[in-house]
C-alpha cells in the first residue's frame, strides 16, 4: 500500500488521539518502525497489521475509523492540498460528484506511483447517485464515504450517504442530495494563497 495512505491514517491518529497513542499502535503492530514514509510503498500485510492495531487500540470498528480518516483528509488544515485537489472538481457538489471518475488519474498526476482504485458515478435520478468504489485498497469505500460527507459540508450541501452493498465486485455508496445550498460552504479560491 502506498505510504501516503498509511501516512494519512498516521496523521489522523496523531492529530485526533495524540502521538503517544500512535506509538502504542505501532508497537502493537510489531513492524519495527514508528512512522510511515509518504513516498514509499509498503507490503499490504504491513498496512493491514497497522490497521488491525488501530482498530484494537482505539476500540472502534475499523469501518468507522476509516470513514473518520476520509473526513479528516478534507477538513483538517494539515491536508489542505487534498481539499484543493477535490474542489477543482466543480463549483457545486453535483459537479464534484461527476468529477470523481477522474479522481484516480488526478491523484496519479500529483503522485505518479499512487494507484487509487477506480470510481464510477451512476446517476439514478435527479439528486440520487450511486458511487461504485472498485477494489484495490482495503477500506476504500469507507474512506470515500468520509470524503463525500466532508465535501458536502465544504460545498454547503445536505446529503444522505449509505453504503448499500456491492455491484460487480465494487462497493456501492448511495448518495441522496437533499439540498444543494443547505448552508454556506467553506470559501475556496482557485489561486493558492501563501502560507
From TrEMBL:
InterPro entries: H-NOX_domain_sf, Heme_NO-bd, NO_sig/Golgi_transp_ligand-bd. Residues 2-156 form the Heme NO-binding domain. It comes from the Bacteria. One of its GO terms (molecular function) is heme binding. It comes from Tritonibacter horizontis. This is Heme NO binding protein. SUPFAM superfamilies: Ligand-binding domain in the NO signalling and Golgi transport (SSF111126). It holds the Pfam family HNOB.
Amino acid at each position: 500500500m502506498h505510504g501516503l495512505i498509511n501516512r494519512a491514517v498516521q496523521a489522523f491518529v496523531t492529530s485526533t488521539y495524540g502521538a503517544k497513542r500512535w506509538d502504542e499502535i505501532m508497537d502493537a503492530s510489531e513492524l519495527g518502525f514508528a512512522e510511515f514514509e509518504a513516498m514509499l510503498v509498503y507490503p499490504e500485510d504491513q498496512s493491514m497489521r497497522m490497521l488491525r492495531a488501530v482498530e484494537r487500540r482505539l476500540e472502534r470498528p475499523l469501518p468507522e475509523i476509516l470513514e473518520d480518516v476520509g473526513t479528516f483528509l478534507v477538513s483538517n488544515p494539515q491536508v489542505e492540498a487534498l481539499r484543493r485537489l477535490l474542489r477543482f472538481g466543480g463549483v457545486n457538489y453535483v459537479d464534484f460528484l461527476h468529477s470523481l471518475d477522474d479522481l484516480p488519474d488526478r491523484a496519479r498526476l500529483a503522485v505518479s506511483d499512487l494507484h487509487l482504485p477506480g470510481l464510477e458515478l451512476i446517476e439514478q435520478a435527479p439528486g440520487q447517485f450511486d458511487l461504485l468504489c472498485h477494489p484495490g485498497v482495503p477500506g476504500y469505500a469507507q474512506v470515500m464515504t468520509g470524503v463525500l460527507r466532508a465535501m458536502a459540508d465544504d460545498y454547503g450541501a445536505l446529503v444522505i450517504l449509505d453504503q448499500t452493498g456491492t455491484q460487480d465486485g465494487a462497493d456501492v455508496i448511495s448518495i441522496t442530495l437533499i439540498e444543494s445550498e443547505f448552508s454556506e460552504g467553506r470559501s475556496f479560491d482557485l489561486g493558492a494563497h501563501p502560507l
